[in-house]
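Here is one chain, start to finish.
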Amino acid sequence: MYYDKTNELSFVSKLPKNNYYSYEFIFDFKFSLCEEKDIIYNNDGTFNRVRISENIFVNISKDELNKNMISFLNKKIGTYITHIESGQKIYIGEDLPGEYTYSRSSQSLTIYKKYIKAIIINYLDDIIKYSYNRNYEANYKIKHLIDAKFGFYRYKIKFSINLNEKEEFFEAVVLLRNDADKKKYLYNILGIKN
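Its structure:
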């Protein structure tokens, strides 16, 4: 792995000299394949966390990271995940790519937390499925009169990521919106903290 003269991240392969795979190809490939994950339970059988193993932690700009997250999430629109605790279907709506990537809370993240948010989109199914501790929050904003007519649910999630053979632990909030169509949609993942 190296930076070429244009400051783009590239990966060297066994190809003839001066032929390299471009960063875009490798990064899209990374977003389309999950490395490895485990669901960790406590001794009493209750959920503890989602453990994620990532071998590649690409250091790229926020703009490139944003473009790749939007591209990945656009492919998930219209799908749903069944939440274990409530048994409800949680849909991926058309607003998720923009909200997940460009919301005020997402824009204020450090580049490191933005990378963490990018990594966990590969594991959205498990992040949603195993979230717990539901709290209802009424909608108070005019902009959410339709898309969150029936308010929001906030769930907690714990996960860990193995980076460079070191396991780091995180906690976040999974925010769901209750739409006027009476379906629940993933709205964002907030408050990522160690």
